[in-house]
Amino acid sequence: MSTPASETAREPGMAARRRGLLVLAVVVVLGGAAWAIYWFGYGRWHISTDNAYVGGNIVQVTSEVAGSVLSVHTRETEKVAAGQTLLELDPADARVAMDSAVADLGNTVRQVRGSFVQVERLRAQVSVREVELQRAREDFARRNAIAGGGAVSAEEVAHARENIQGLEAALRAAREDLNVALAQTQGTTPEQHPQVLRAAARVREAALALQRTTIRAPVTSVVGKKGVQVGQRVAPGTPLIGLVPLDDIWVDANFKEVQLAQMRIGQPVEIVSDLYGRGVKYAGHIKGISPGTGAAFALLPPQNATGNWIKIVQRVAVRVTLDPEEVREHPLRVGLSMLVVVDVHDQSGPMLTPPQSEVVAAIAPREERDPAVEALIARIIAENTGHPAPQG
User: Fold this and answer.
1) If pLDDT is split at 50, 70 and 90, which confidence band does 392 have?
2) Helix 154-185 vs helix 92-146: angle between axes, to the nearest 10 degrees?
3) Which of 82, 197, 258, 323 is least enclosed by beta carbons within 10 angstroms?
4) Angle separating helix axes 371-385 and 92-146, nearest 10 degrees
5) Where are the alpha helices (DSSP H) in 186-264?
6) Quick one: DSSP state of residue 305?
7) Which positions ≥6 away from 281 have C-beta within 8 Å?
8) How far is CA 44 from CA 27, 260, 283, in A?
9) Backbone angles phi, psi at 164, to 5 degrees
10) Is residue 271 scored above 70 in pLDDT?
11) Quick one: how far is CA 153 from the chain centroid?
């Protein structure tokens, strides 16, 4: 049986426990209230993931012609401007092909010019045959008129008739030769003849191959990987240098499938990079949502019908665009980890990206006709047709 002294000793401990339980209850209540305030005021309208990474285009620079590398003009991590020379191939083979094409053009122009001269010669030949035939017919008519009186033998009359037949055949052959020549030249000029145009196209092709021995940067970018060395023999299509245009990057955020129900195209996004920390925040918006999960596009997709099935929450890639001005102020790199928070207050946007006709990526094309090459072709044609080239 407890004594009053022992009960008095237990009372402070029980009071302390009651105070501790009371404090714990207050903390739990306050914590629950704080969580409720957070959830209803912020949490349910903001969906986040740290499974997000910076994405961008990786432009593979390849060779369009075969050749040996003479010089390399850039290194990894260097920024290059559009049109800047990256490397040069040995132009010897291309120059030989260019010289051959130029010679072929001159030879073709002379041959075509000869075809036009041939037309005039065949026309003259037809005229000669017509005159000869007319003369033979008149001679036959005279001989045939006096043959009845015995002044001309029947044999001479027969020879005259045979001569007419031979000249008629010769005239037909001459006219056919003229028709063949006209078919090759009629409706055109030596400068616009199809054979000349084809030879000129070969000159342009050779000049283009010569230009392609100098490989230039298609876009303003940063050199990510250089896979070529001086002296290396490269074939057309060989990847040489990988360029990354850092002005055109985005974020691919991989959200759980249970987080997608409230997401819509165009919703605002707040992004934090592990590179700069929470002191730098990027503003973006949802550009599109992938049509399938990551597993669906994997090289070896899972086969859940085998029976060895474990349900795993799938993730879907969400494309988030960034503000170019913020990216220029705080540059990012492809592959960096990001924290993405989507504001889902506004759910009026579509879940699928509407059709768009904008150009996603493009490079400056080469000039269709190089003025210097066109001037060279015009000079060669003029020199070989006997017409002086216009002075520019």
Assistant:
1) very low
2) 150
3) 258
4) 30
5) 194-211
6) G
7) 270, 271, 272
8) 23, 13, 20
9) -60, -45
10) yes
11) 86
Whether the pLDDT of residue 198 is over 60: the answer is: yes
* This model's pTM is above 0.85: no
Which is it for strands 268-273 and 214-216: parallel, antiparallel or unpaired?
Answer: unpaired
* φ/ψ of residue 231, rounded to 5: 90, -10
Task: Give the pLDDT of residue 8.
Answer: 60
Structure confidence by residue, pLDDT tens digits, 160-184: 778 878 888 887 888 887 777 777 7
Residues 6+ apart with CB under 8 A from 277: none
Cα distance between the two ends of the chain? 128
Most confident of 150-164, 198-212, 364-378: 198-212
- Alpha carbons 155 and 161: distance in angstroms, whole number: 10
| Amino acid type, 367 | E
Summarised one tens digit per residue, pLDDT across range 182-196 is: 777 777 788 888 888
Say how far apart CA 335 and CA 298 lie, in whole Å: 18
**Residue 321: what pLDDT?**
94
187/210 Cα distance (integer angstroms): 34
H helices present in the chain, as ranges = 4-41, 92-146, 154-185, 194-211, 324-329, 371-385
**Structural contact between residues 70 and 85, judged by C-beta atoms closer than 8 angstroms:** no
**What is the rounded CA–CA span in Å between residue 260 and residue 318?**
9
